[in-house]
Design brief:
The complex is a heterodimer. By secondary structure, chain A is an all-alpha fold. Chain A is 75% helix and 0% strand. The longest helix of chain A has 34 residues, at 81-114. Chain A is globular, with a radius of gyration of 21 Å. The two termini of chain A are 33 Å apart. Chain B contains 20 helices and twelve strands. In chain B, the strands form three sheets. Chain B has a five-stranded antiparallel β-sheet with strand order 1-2-4-5-3, with helices on both faces. Chain B has a five-stranded antiparallel β-sheet with strand order 6-7-9-10-8, sandwiched between helices. A two-stranded antiparallel sheet of chain B has the order 11-12. In chain B, α13 packs antiparallel against α17, α13 (322-352) packs parallel to α18 and α18 packs antiparallel against α19 (466-482). The longest helix of chain B has 31 residues, at 322-352. Chain B is elongated. In chain B, 36% of the residues are buried. The interface between A and B is medium-sized, with 36 and 31 residues. Chain A: It is a multi-pass membrane protein.
């Protein structure tokens, strides 16, 4: 009855791109930015915004060259079968890599902030199972639920932050450019990398019903993400000061702990409420990467469907997420130092490279028929 | 009863013997055994009506003989010596109509020396509106068992089916399961013809189409498909028809039999078709471009496709001032969510996040739980089960005993259990509030899954706290988003988002603001004149001044 992949609207694609970044970014970015750029954190975000726009434009341009295929399908056409397959595999690995990184982040946060007694594997397993369920239902369902989650998530996020606006002290943002432009630039690396994740449009474009609007959705996503990150960074540094934020594991959570309604004492501490919506956001951060990875893997292997891969891959990712980092400080250091560069490599460098070569060789999709071309490439991919 | 019938039969026979010659031949010896034979529809379809009246009647007797309520009346047509017979089920026909419009006319109103054949009888003599020609015995018996009378005439290899159906119907009453304060008071009844009438009376356009299908091998229930041509998506109608045509089962007694055979997702708790006993609701759905399925003997109509927001609306919303309807609608939405998470939230917060509760409330909470021997999760579970038991008992019992149950429930659970220290008073409040919230869900079919799903969520809350509640809710959300009802996503217009339709979901916009038809109807014309608003008197007045 329902087609395997189905169609999503441009709005849903935009939601997908927002979700793929949002949940972890607002959690980790304030800390990293405060560490690197101190009181100039907001400047780092501006720089990251520009970086995000560049990635959005590059990836959309590339996607629009081959609107009926995913990057896995056309990479062999651009770079030749062998190199193309290698690049395809890097993309596949990238999606899974971020997915299990997200799983670990989620588990760490739940065990550190909420339930210290519960083993981390419980949280990772539950989130992965939910994610598998969503992916089993297909892209359309993921996008639909994601839409609902975002409609709750973003307003709640801004609303809760508005409650602490009165605590923001502007002198926390001084001194301005204490050590020149160096620290803000370094600080921009991490948020820039996060925003670069909107390059997932390379996997989504064939399923978007109105493909011409792909560029616009990517840019919109970057703008929304910029605003969200800006609000949380300004909120965190403005209320607590850069020194404190830099030392915190999860500044956003500490921020929410400060909220309490003086006049209506219904619920004392809002961080549990924030946790509830954040779990939803996190689920979709994981699901978006997991789905993109599964789709990429199935296309890389030349399979007709990704469904048989869901549970084995999910189990593998859960195991990887447990094995890859020793503890939370390991994870935080990784987030700040290794992670941004490694995903920038894929999102900016590889994507840029593909666009460059495609442009030089003048490659673009010739005929308008969407799936005929894809089949052909899939067939040749199976032969390699 | 049976004796009386036999006597009557004997009387009829003897009268006939006096008046008619020759008497119908007795069944041949070998056919006595054959009377035990079971006649299959396929077999009957193979037997054409013969031109000999005796032969026909012999066969009818072989098939229907021994039926106490089967009647056969043989007579001579007026104006000649031609014999004829009429057969019918005694309790399914309107006797006066049969006597006056058929028998009387056939016996007395045929002019002398008129050449009589079936066409003449149909065109000139029988004054019944619905008459149809019958050619084989399957048709004969399907007409008879439906309550029609069948007229055989000697020398004709055809027969006439005459619609003289008449049987007791329940009067149209106020719908019991969906009552409104301001809405109309009529509800569907068991008879499908009556229900069609209730719909037709509201929508007076030739474009309202009622298609009739027969479903069920034994019951041959009438299923009527209603839709408005030009508003409905033709592909939807085709799909519904195709799915109904595929139903092949012995018995179809009501809407559920049809519903379960045609819905998209068989493995879900959630209703995928709206069942209603209100004609106004059905008509609202028809004008939205949906298809309505009426099943004979069922006082409920099915509306497809269904969506979750639609299930949370009531006809009442459209009989109140729009602002009030909006507020009530939101109250209902909140109650809908609360009916799943009410007691789980309490368990999660009191067990895992006591720091969320303000200090003073926490103190009184702790004081109330003082001495309760079981953990809060078990306490909640016990109370929920007790609540469900009371509810179920209250429905099944006769009304007089039902009151006793509620008194016993209120006393034992509300009062004695608290005083004995088995449960805390706060838990009683929470469970009662959750239960009441679940009763505000307008669709009974939707209220039940929500109450059932509360138990797994309660378990999650007891083991994982608020995280468990969120996980449960997300799982439900993903499940709901994955459902489709005849191709329509279950959560639409929320997800996928259709801004235009939100004005009947997030709010109940005034009628002049709901200008376009929903997207279920492909041809998206205005349903209110776009100038409708500016023609309202006060604005004209304003423009003039």
């Amino acid at each position: 009855m329902v087609r395997e992949e189905g169609r999503i609207s441009a709005l849903q694609a935009c939601g997908y791109q927002i979700s793929i970044v949002l949940a972890t970014a607002i959690l980790f970015v304030p800390g990293i930015v405060a560490q690197k750029a101190r009181s100039d954190g907001w400047l780092s975000l501006l720089l990251a915004f520009i970086f995000g726009l560049i990635v959005a434009v590059i990836s959309s341009k590339l996607a629009l060259r081959f609107p009926s295929q995913t990057v896995i399908q056309y990479a062999p056409r651009i770079l030749g079968p062998f190199l193309g397959k290698i690049v395809g595999f890097i993309y596949v690995y990238y999606f899974f890599y971020v997915a299990y990184y997200v799983q670990r982040q989620f588990g760490e946060l739940m065990t550190t902030a909420y339930m210290q007694e519960t083993p981390i594997v419980v949280f990772i397993a539950i989130l992965t199972l939910l994610s598998c369920y969503a992916i089993y239902q297909g892209l359309e369902v993921i996008c639909r639920v994601n839409q609902i989650v975002l409609v709750i998530f973003i307003p709640a996020f801004f609303f809760l932050l508005a409650l602490i606006a009165k605590d923001i002290r502007l002198d926390n943002f001084l001194p301005f450019l204490e050590n020149g432009w160096g620290p803000p630039l370094v600080g921009a690396l991490a948020p820039g990398a996060w925003m670069g994740e909107v390059a997932v449009i390379l996997m989504l474009t064939p399923f978007v019903s109105d493909r011409r609007r792909v560029l616009r959705t990517s840019v919109t996503a970057v703008v929304v993400l910029f605003l969200c990150m800006l609000v949380v960074v300004v909120g965190a540094i403005g209320t607590m000061g850069a020194e404190v934020v830099a030392r915190l594991l999860f500044p956003a959570f500490s921020l929410y702990r400060r909220i309490h309604f003086a006049t209506i004492p219904i619920l004392e501490r809002q961080d549990a409420v924030f946790m509830m919506i954040w779990v939803a956001g996190m689920l979709f951060k994981l699901t978006t990467f997991f789905y993109a990875g599964l789709l990429a893997l199935s296309q890389w292997l030349g399979l007709k469907t990704y469904r048989p891969l869901i549970f084995p891959t999910g189990a593998l990712l859960a195991a990887l997420s447990l094995m890859s980092w020793h503890n939370i400080s390991d994870l935080v250091a990784f987030s700040a130092e290794v992670f941004p560069l490694s995903i920038d490599f894929v999102n900016l460098f590889l994507t840029g490279l593909l666009l460059l070569v495609a442009a030089c060789r003048g490659l673009r999709e010739v005929n308008g028929s969407p799936y005929a071309d894809g089949e052909e490439v899939k067939g040749s991919a199976g032969a390699v | 009863m049976r004796m009386g019938k036999k006597l009557k039969d004997l009387l009829v026979q003897s009268k006939l013997k006096r008046r008619l010659a020759p008497a119908p031949p007795p069944l041949p010896q070998e056919d006595r055994k054959a009377e035990k034979k079971v006649w299959e529809p396929g077999e009957l379809k193979q037997i054409p009506i013969s031109s000999s009246l005796e032969q026909n009647l012999a066969l009818v007797k072989r098939v229907m003989g021994g039926n106490a309520d089967f009647e056969m009346r043989e007579f001579v047509l007026g104006g000649g010596e031609k014999r004829a017979a009429i057969i019918f089920m005694a309790n399914m026909v309107e006797r006066s109509q049969l006597n006056r419009q058929i028998l009387e006319n056939l016996m007395f109103r045929i002019p002398k020396d008129q050449k009589v054949d079936l066409d003449f009888l149909r065109d000139r003599v029988i004054t019944v509106a619905e008459v149809c020609e019958v050619r084989d015995f399957w048709e004969v018996f399907s007409h008879v068992t439906e309550g029609c009378a069948v007229l055989f005439v000697d020398g004709e290899n055809r027969a006439l089916g005459l619609d003289v159906r008449g049987y007791e119907r329940r009067a149209i009453e106020e719908p019991v399961t969906e009552s409104t304060v301001r809405g109309p008071r009529d509800g569907f009844v068991e008879d499908v013809e009556e229900n069609i009438m209730l719909i037709r009376r509201r929508i007076k356009t030739p474009n309202l189409v009622m298609e009739r299908v027969t479903v069920g091998r034994l019951t041959r229930s009438v299923v009527v498909l209603a839709y408005i041509k030009g508003l409905v998506n033709p592909a939807l109608v085709e799909e519904v028809k195709k799915r109904i045509a595929q139903i092949d089962m012995d018995a179809v007694y009501g809407f559920r039999y049809v519903e379960e055979m045609i819905i998209d997702n068989p493995y879900t708790f959630f209703p995928q078709a709206i069942c209603t006993e209100r004609p106004d609701r059905v008509c609202g759905a028809l004008t939205e471009g949906r298809v309505v399925i009426l099943v004979d003997t069922s006082p409920f109509a099915l509306i497809v496709p269904a969506s979750l927001p639609m299930l949370l609306q009531t006809p009442e919303d459209y009989y109140h001032i729009s602002g009030i309807s909006t507020a009530i609608r939101w109250l209902r939405y909140l109650a809908f969510i609360f009916s799943v998470v009410g007691s789980p939230l309490y368990v999660a917060i009191s067990n895992y996040h006591p720091d969320m509760i303000p200090a003073r409330l926490l103190l009184s909470l702790a004081a109330a739980r003082e001495g309760v021997p079981v953990p809060a999760a078990l306490e909640a579970f016990m109370m929920e089960v007790a609540f469900e038991l009371l509810r179920e008992a209250g429905i099944r019992l006769p009304r007089q005993v039902g009151q006793a149950v509620s008194i016993v429930g209120a006393l034992i659970i509300g009062e004695a259990a608290v005083r004995a220290g088995l449960v805390s008073p706060l838990m009683v409040i929470i469970v009662a509030a959750t239960g009441i919230a679940s009763f505000t869900v307008p669709s009974y079919e939707l209220g039940v899954p929500m109450r059932l799903l509360r138990f797994p969520i309660l378990f999650l809350a007891a083991t994982l706290g608020l995280f468990g509640v969120v996980v449960g809710l997300l799982a439900i959300l993903i499940h709901l988003a994955g459902l489709r009802s005849f191709g329509l996503p279950y959560l639409s217009p929320l997800a996928p988002l259709k801004f235009g339709e939100l004005r009947d979901v997030l709010v109940r916009a005034p009628f002049w603001a709901m200008r376009t038809r929903p997207e279920t109807s492909k041809r998206n014309w205005f349903r209110v004149s776009p100038w409708g608003r500016s023609q309202r008197p006060e604005e004209e007045h304003r423009r003039e001044s």
